[in-house]
Amino acid sequence: MELRDRIAVVTGGGTGMGRELVKQLAAAGCSVAACDVSGERLEETRAQAAKAAPAGTRVSAHACDVSDEREVLAFRDAVRTAHATDRVHLLFNNAGIGGGGSLFADDRAEWERTFAVDWWGVYYCTRAFLPLLVASPEARIVNTSSVNGFWASLGPATPHTAYSAAKFAVKGFSEALITDLRVHAPHVGVSLVMPGHVGTSIVANTAAVLGRPSPKEMSADDLAAMRARLKLPPGVPDDDQLRALLQQVDDDFRDKAPLSAADAAAIILDGVRAGRWRILVGDDAILLDRLVRADPERAYEPSFFEELRAQGAFALIRPS
């Protein structure tokens, strides 16, 4: 699919893959309407994208919580006004957060908030923008799932239920759309994106959306709860050391990932241009997909995690 002189909608455009998608789309001459819950970060994205875009390419920024259908509908109407259009060509359902790992240990509100952003956001945006996509001669829906959309784990001792459940829903929805679109709107395609570990700020963004303190803001009570969760002895490491350690983990997830957000966005857009419905992002995603398909019954056994480690996929899993 050609990108130049098209109009794309990108959710979660304030940071990470969303920001890079906005920038690379705009650089290719595609006008973009981006949304995010953080207006400040989104405006930074808009300014960066507009600076590198060819003349006549429009980039607009819109505040929107994709888990709220009323906000999504208002976003759609704002896109129509800002771009003076009754159609869009591309919808990138990219917004997502983590959280809600355990049905037992995590707060129900956090679990449901994570699921709402990661699943209902995809559904609401697809519903809202579908008439505008159908109105285009050629269009495509691009839904970001995850490797956790076909493998519901972060490691043998790390529950990961809300995010995985939502990403499985996105995968199933996207695959079902292949037939639904073929029957009712054959000029509209769908792409399912399944990234492995990509260097983004999802850890910090998740904390902000869920109202958690950052590591530097953690109180003594917060740190005591974290020690209990990590089964650390009292006072070891001390509070300042633990804050620094937790911050380093967050920073390393972004800065030491095997694939940058910019490279991930380039892989996604290459797949969109080629009209592919299934886009694995990263060598770790390709490896995990192969191993799970080869022996799905073993995918959650200790021996499976050991094989991942043996093949160098350390970034996929957390230590037990």
Plain-language structure description:
The chain has 320 residues and is α/β, with parallel strands linked by helices. It folds into 2 domains: 7-200 and 260-316, NAD(P)-binding Rossmann-like Domain (Rossmann fold); 212-256, no CATH class. Helices cover 50% and strands 13% of the residues. The protein contains 11 helices and 9 strands. It has helices at residues 16-27, 39-52, 69-82, 108-134, 161-184, 202-209, 220-230, 239-255, 261-273, 283-294, 302-310, and strands at residues 7-11, 31-36, 59-63, 90-93, 139-144, 188-195, 198-199, 259-260, 278-281. Helix 1 (16-27) packs across helix 9, helix 3 (69-82) runs parallel beside helix 4 (108-134) and helix 4 runs parallel beside helix 5 (161-184). The radius of gyration is 20 Å and the shape is globular. The termini are far apart.
Give me the CATH architecture of the largest domain, please. Answer: 3-Layer(aba) Sandwich
- In CATH terms, the superfamily of the largest domain is NAD(P)-binding Rossmann-like Domain
Given as residue ranges, the uncertain stretches (5+ residues, pLDDT < 50) are none
Structural shape: globular
Helical content, roughly? 40-55%
Alpha plus pi helix count? 11
The CATH class label of the largest domain is Alpha Beta
Radius of gyration: 20 Å
- Elements, N to C (H/E): EHEHEHEHEHEEHHHEHEHH
What name does the CATH topology of the largest domain carry? Rossmann fold
Which class of secondary structure composition applies to the elements? alpha/beta
Order of strands across the main sheet: 3-2-1-4-5-6-9
Q: DSSP strand (E) fraction?
A: 5-15%
